[in-house]
Design goal:
By secondary structure, the chain is α/β, with parallel strands linked by helices. The chain is 34% helix and 16% strand.
């Protein structure tokens, strides 16, 4: 296994915090990654084609509860990990432990540990910053990519004002109610039970370090430590001929319009049935999860 960061202190959310989650009956699986534990959902037939669902900030695999059963019913094996610092995964308590590089290393090691191949990736928000790097660094493991409300910034782009404000809020606000933050990114709202489920992994301030840090890790200048790595990943993606689909929503102030760059730049995106998901906010998996899963399955089942 690749060299992984050494984490000296972390929190592990008590399991009782996840008891009785609404519409989320999946038992967690765990992988040890250099001393920290990564949790993931593994649903559907073990010999099924792999669908990898990567969440972003500040959510966890619960975000995919509306999509997982649709994929499983269609015969796919669904893997939905909780990024380190989120969900049931361990949560380092040191701010220095949360780096873009570390997150790529953790998830790459997890994919190698389970020898995942023929991956059909669905990624959104930070799931795309990590997932697209994985695809570029181990392209032989990936079959298709579906990008939704995400990107791969290099620090050379102008950041949307909505993101700049969000980053300031995450860094400085004394109040950081994760469930309500997720609700604010949903065009259709959230039930109180769903808000509570997003709050569940974070019973105290020391559990929320990763959620606070993620916005600051997005490359926003050419001097960012991961700017060069993302530029290199873009060089791979500009030669990417495997099927690449965008499913961006119509009501996301941060990523709206970002799909055009991918549609123009990636060879595998040419001629694909790119779709705008109407009536959905940033967390389109919440607003239109079933529709998105069905659209992706149609894409996966179309000969390319």
């Amino acid at each position: 296994m690749r060299k992984l960061p050494v984490i000296r202190a972390f929190k592990r959310t008590p399991e009782q915090r996840f008891a009785g989650l609404a519409d989320f009956p999946y038992e967690p699986h765990y992988s040890d990654l250099g001393g920290v534990r990564l949790a993931y959902i593994d649903a559907g037939p073990r010999d099924g084609e792999v669908v990898l669902l990567l969440h972003g900030e500040p959510t966890w695999s619960y975000l995919y509860r509306k999509m997982i059963p649709v994929f499983v019913a269609a015969g796919y094996r669904v893997l939905a990990p909780d990024l380190i610092g989120f969900g049931r995964s361990d949560k380092p308590t040191g701010r220095v432990d949360y780096t873009y590089h570390n997150h790529v290393q953790w998830l790459s090691a997890w994919a190698e540990l389970h020898d995942l191949n023929g991956i059909n990736l669905f990624c959104q928000d930070w799931g795309s910053l990590i997932g697209l790097r994985l695809a570029a660094e181990m392209p032989q493991r990936f079959a298709r990519i579906v990008l939704a409300n995400g990107g791969l910034p290099t620090g050379l782009e102008q950041m949307p004002r909505a993101f700049i404000l969000w980053r300031l809020f995450a860094r400085f606000s004394p109040w950081f109610p994760i469930g309500r933050i997720v609700k604010s990114g949903c065009a259709q709202g959230l039930t109180p039970e769903a808000v509570a489920a997003y709050d569940a992994p974070f019973p105290g301030r020391s559990y929320r370090v990763g959620a606070r840090m993620f916005p600051t890790l997005v490359p926003s200048s050419p001097n960012d430590p991961e700017s060069a790595a993302n530029q290199q990943a873009w060089e791979v993606l500009r030669q990417w001929k495997k099927p690449f689909l965008t499913l961006f929503s119509s009501r996301d102030p941060i990523t709206r319009g970002g799909e055009k760059l991918f549609q123009k730049s990636i060879p595998g995106a040419q001629g694909q049935p790119h779709t705008t998901i109407r009536g959905a906010g940033h967390f389109l998996q919440e607003d239109k999860g079933v529709e998105i899963a069905e659209t992706m399955i149609a894409f996966l089942q179309t000969p390319h």
